[in-house]
């Protein structure tokens, strides 16, 4: 397939995405990036070199503009189920995955690095009197933790510790987020996760090693201070990366959350139904929106890990 064919496929996929109901509310940059990822999934699939897939992709290039709205939507969702989909992983399960992993890394988040979402200066969540930085700095004092941590992350933590000694916990935590952004994705060496994405980013020097005693307070601070939703990205049903997805209140959200909240696509981001506390529901069992974020009230709760009954006073 020539580069001209590749470009044509990208354009046709973008055109089809624009005809998906609700897509007009999605950020243009997210639409373009999604089209690019879907086109590459078609071209770079492990089976794309076989004649049926190769010629099928060529035929798709020329037919996408002719497909009616409903069928264009079905085609894009079918490709998305294989190539571009996230699944919410509640923070309680994420702690278990990190304990099970042989190694843990922070990696450069593609949505943030490419400018699809700029949440480095978005307002923090109200944390009351809780010092979310203290557990991080306590773990950081351990020589074994320091020895197993990337120099880039070590420098950021040392800087945050200095700011904390001279100022407030809020100032120090803000400094840590500033110094580590966009390295807010988590990659793991884990039996249940594909390693292709990890190998690629490692080869390109876009990962930081992090000791597991440090990563646990790290995700708690991100969850409670940044309000992120942890998800794992899937390819052909196999997870390969753990994303810290910002919600729509933070620059419109990332690829997953922007699509989820501003189109009617329920396939690109799958909620957590059963793990930890599940999704927020009323006493009759009907789904309710997120209680903490006004910008998320247009869609039902995703099940990111909130203990809804305790937080709403229905259980002590």
Question: Would you mind describing this structure in some detail?
Answer:
- By secondary structure, this protein is an alpha+beta fold.
- The protein folds into two domains: 3-83, no CATH class; 88-270, no CATH class.
- The chain is 47% helix and 11% strand.
- The protein is built from 14 helices and seven strands.
- The strands form two sheets. A four-stranded mixed sheet has the order 6-5-1-7. A three-stranded antiparallel sheet has the order 3-2-4.
- Strand 5 and strand 6 (238-245) form a beta hairpin.
- The longest helix is centred in the first third of the chain and has 17 residues, at 28-44.
- The chain is globular, with a radius of gyration of 21 Å.
- 38% of the residues are buried.
- Mean pLDDT is 83; it is low at 46-51.
């Amino acid at each position: 397939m020539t580069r001209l064919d590749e470009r044509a496929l990208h354009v046709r996929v973008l055109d089809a995405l624009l005809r998906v109901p609700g897509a007009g509310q999605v950020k243009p940059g997210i639409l373009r990036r999604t089209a690019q990822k879907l086109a590459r999934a078609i071209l770079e699939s492990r089976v794309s070199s076989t004649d049926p897939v190769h010629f099928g992709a060529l035929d798709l290039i020329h037919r996408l503009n002719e497909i009616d709205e409903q069928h264009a939507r079905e085609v894009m969702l079918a490709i998305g189920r294989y190539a571009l989909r996230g699944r919410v992983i509640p923070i309680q399960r994420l702690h278990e995955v990190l304990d099970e992993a042989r190694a843990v890394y922070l990696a450069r988040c593609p949505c943030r690095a490419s400018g699809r979402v700029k949440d480095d200066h978005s307002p923090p969540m109200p944390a009351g009197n809780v010092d979310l930085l203290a557990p991080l700095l306590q773990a950081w004092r351990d020589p074994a933790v320091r020895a197993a941590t990337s120099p880039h992350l070590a420098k950021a933590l040392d800087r945050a510790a200095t700011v904390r000694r001279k100022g407030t916990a809020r100032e120090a935590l803000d400094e840590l987020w500033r110094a580590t952004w966009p390295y807010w994705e988590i990659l793991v060496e884990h039996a249940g996760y594909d390693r292709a994405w990890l190998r690629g980013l490692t080869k390109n020097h876009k990962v930081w090693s992090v000791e597991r005693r440090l990563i646990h307070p790290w995700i708690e601070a991100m969850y409670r201070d940044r309000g992120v939703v942890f998800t794992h990205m899937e390819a052909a049903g196999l997870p390969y990366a753990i994303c810290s997805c910002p919600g729509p209140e933070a620059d419109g959200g990332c690829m997953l959350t922007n699509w989820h909240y501003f189109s009617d696509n329920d396939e690109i981001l799958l909620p957590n139904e059963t793990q930890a506390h599940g999704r927020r529901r009323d006493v009759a069992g009907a789904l309710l929106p997120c209680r903490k974020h006004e910008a998320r009230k247009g869609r039902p709760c995703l099940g990111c890990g909130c203990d809804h009954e305790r937080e709403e006073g229905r259980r002590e």
